[in-house]
C-alpha cells in the first residue's frame, strides 16, 4: 500500500471526518464514566460515613466495601460475556480487536465496580477498551461491511478520544496507545492522524464539560512541583540504583498478581471477594499504624498523587515505607482478579519511593520523584518511551532539567525487568519442557 495514495483517497478523508465527529460522543462517554466513578467514591468513602458515623471515618470502613467490590467484579467477569476485558496482571495490553456490544457492557461494569469500590487499579485501560468498542460500533452503523483497516483506524480513534486528557496531554495518551500496540511505519501514520484528531476534539469536549458541569477535569497534574535542581553525577548514580530498585519492586508486585491468578480461576467470585477483604484489611492496617487515611492505599492513586507530592515533607521515611508496602500488596492483589489499568498505581508507588529516598546524600526531591515514577512505570508497563514522557511531563517546566536522571532510571529498570526471571508460576509448556 502507498501511504500517500491512501491519505489522498476519499475513503481516508472520510475517515478523518468521522474521527473528528466520533471524538465528541466518545469523549463525552469517557467523561461521564470518570465522573460517575469519582462520585461513587466520594459517596461511599466520604459522604456516607459522615452521615452514619460520628467523628472521623473509622479505619474498618473500607473492609466491607472491598468485599462487595470483589463480589460484584467477580460476578461480572464470571457471568457476563467478555471476561471483563484484559487482565491487568499481564501489563498494559492493546490489540485482540475492539470489544463488541455485550463485551462493552461487561468491560464497563467490571471497571465501574473495581474503580468505585476501592481496588488499586486505574481507569486508562477500561477507557481505551470502551473507546475502541464505541469507535468500531460507529463504523458498523455507518457501513456494516467496512474493511478491517477502517475498523482498526476508527477503533483506535475512539481509544485516543477516550483518554484524551486523562494523562495530562492528548499527545501522551496517544503515545501510550501507539507504543503499547507496537505501531510503526505506514500503519502508524495512517492510524495516528485520525486518532490524534479525535484526541484533540476529545480534549476540547473534556474541557467544555468540566466548565459546564463543574464535576472536574480528571486530568493528571501536580498542583505543587518541587523546585528545579540541575543534574549531578551523584543523582545519575542514584538514578541507576533507582532503576534496579523499582525493577525489583515491580517484580514482587507482578509475582503476587500472576501467582494468584490460578487460584482466582478455581472460584472467581469467592476468591475475588476474599482478595477484596485482604485489600480492605491492608488499608485498615495502614490507617491504624500510620494515622493517615486508608484512601492513600486504595484507588488508583491519581487523585492522591498531587497531595502526596505537595505534602512530601510531612511524611516520615517509616510511614512512606509502610505506604509503599501496603500499596504494593493491594496493587498486586488487584492485578490478579480485578479489572483496570496499571499506570496510576505504578506512578504513585514510584513517587512515594522517590520521596522516601530524596534525603539521601546527593539526592533531591524533584529528580527523585521523576526517577521513581519513570522507573516504576517502565518496569510495570514495559513501555520505556511512554514512561519517560509520563515522568517528564508530570513535573512540568522543571521536568526537562531532570530528564537525564529519568532516562537513566527508565533504561536501567527496563533492562533489569527483562533480566529477572518471569514472575509467577511457569507456563504449562515450560513445565513440560522441564
Q: What characteristics describe this protein?
A:
434 residues; 17 helices; disordered C terminus; mainly alpha
What does this entry look like structurally?
The structure is a single chain. By secondary structure, the chain is mainly α. Helices cover 71% and strands 0% of the residues. The chain is built from 17 helices and no strands. The protein has helices spanning 3-8, 10-52, 62-79, 101-116, 124-142, 148-162, 170-181, 185-213, 233-266, 268-290, 304-310, 317-337, 343-357, 365-381, 384-394, 403-419, 428-433. Helix 3 packs antiparallel against helix 4, helix 9 crosses helix 10 (268-290) and helix 14 packs antiparallel against helix 15. The radius of gyration is 21 Å and the shape is globular. The chain starts with a helix and ends with a helix. Mean pLDDT is 86; it is low at 428-434.
How are the elements arranged and paired?
Layout: H1 3-8, H2 10-52, H3 62-79, H4 101-116, H5 124-142, H6 148-162, H7 170-181, H8 185-213, H9 233-266, H10 268-290, H11 304-310, H12 317-337, H13 343-357, H14 365-381, H15 384-394, H16 403-419, H17 428-433
Strand content: under 5%
Structural class: mainly alpha
Q: Which stretches are poorly predicted, pLDDT < 50 over at least 5 residues?
A: 428-434
> Total number of helical segments?
17
Fraction of helical residues: over 70%
Report the principal-axis shape. Answer: globular
Largest sheet, strands/sense/barrel: none
> In total, how many beta strands?
0
Helix and strand sequence: HHHHHHHHHHHHHHHHH
Distance between the termini: 45 Å
- What is the average per-residue confidence, as pLDDT, rounded to a whole number? 86
Amino acid at each position: 500500500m502507498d501511504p500517500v495514495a491512501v491519505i489522498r483517497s476519499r475513503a481516508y478523508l472520510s475517515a478523518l471526518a468521522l474521527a473528528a465527529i466520533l471524538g465528541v460522543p466518545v469523549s463525552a462517554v469517557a467523561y461521564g464514566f470518570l465522573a460517575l466513578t469519582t462520585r461513587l467514591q466520594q459517596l461511599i468513602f466520604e459522604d456516607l460515613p459522615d452521615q452514619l458515623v460520628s467523628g472521623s471515618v473509622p479505619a474498618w470502613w473500607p473492609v466491607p466495601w472491598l468485599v462487595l467490590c470483589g463480589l460484584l467484579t467477580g460476578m461480572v467477569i464470571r457471568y457476563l460475556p467478555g471476561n471483563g476485558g484484559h487482565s491487568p496482571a499481564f501489563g498494559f495490553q492493546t490489540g485482540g480487536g475492539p470489544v463488541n456490544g455485550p463485551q462493552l457492557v461487561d468491560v464497563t461494569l467490571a471497571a465501574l465496580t473495581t474503580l468505585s469500590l476501592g481496588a488499586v487499579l486505574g481507569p486508562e485501560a477500561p477507557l481505551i477498551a470502551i473507546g475502541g468498542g464505541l469507535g468500531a460500533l460507529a463504523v458498523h452503523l455507518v457501513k456494516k461491511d467496512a474493511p478491517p483497516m477502517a475498523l482498526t483506524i476508527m477503533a483506535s480513534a475512539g481509544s485516543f478520544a477516550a483518554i484524551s486528557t486523562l494523562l495530562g496531554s492528548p499527545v501522551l495518551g496517544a503515545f501510550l496507545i501507539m507504543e503499547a500496540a507496537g505501531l510503526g511505519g505506514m500503519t502508524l501514520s495512517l492510524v495516528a492522524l485520525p486518532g490524534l484528531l479525535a484526541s484533540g476534539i476529545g480534549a476540547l469536549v473534556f474541557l467544555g464539560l468540566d466548565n459546564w458541569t463543574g464535576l472536574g477535569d480528571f486530568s493528571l497534574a501536580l498542583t505543587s512541583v518541587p523546585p528545579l535542581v540541575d543534574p549531578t553525577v551523584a543523582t545519575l548514580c542514584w538514578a541507576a540504583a533507582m532503576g534496579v530498585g523499582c525493577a525489583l519492586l515491580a517484580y514482587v508486585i507482578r509475582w503476587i498478581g500472576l501467582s494468584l491468578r490460578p487460584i482466582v480461576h478455581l472460584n472467581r467470585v469467592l476468591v475475588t471477594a476474599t482478595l477484596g477483604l485482604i485489600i480492605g484489611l491492608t488499608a485498615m492496617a495502614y490507617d491504624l499504624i500510620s494515622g493517615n487515611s486508608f484512601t492513600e492505599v486504595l484507588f488508583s492513586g491519581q487523585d492522591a498523587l498531587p497531595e502526596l507530592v505537595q505534602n512530601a515533607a510531612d511524611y516520615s521515611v517509616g510511614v512512606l515505607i509502610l505506604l509503599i508496602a501496603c500499596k504494593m500488596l493491594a496493587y498486586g492483589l488487584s492485578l490478579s482478579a480485578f479489572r483496570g489499568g496499571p499506570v496510576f498505581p505504578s506512578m504513585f508507588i514510584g513517587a512515594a519511593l522517590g520521596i522516601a529516598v530524596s534525603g539521601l546524600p546527593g539526592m533531591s526531591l524533584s529528580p527523585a520523584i521523576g526517577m521513581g515514577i519513570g522507573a516504576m512505570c517502565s518496569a510495570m508497563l514495559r513501555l520505556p518511551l511512554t514512561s519517560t514522557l509520563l515522568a517528564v511531563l508530570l513535573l512540568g517546566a522543571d521536568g526537562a532539567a531532570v530528564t537525564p536522571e529519568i532516562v537513566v532510571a527508565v533504561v536501567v529498570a527496563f533492562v533489569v525487568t527483562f533480566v529477572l526471571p518471569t514472575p509467577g508460576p511457569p507456563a504449562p509448556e515450560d513445565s513440560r519442557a522441564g
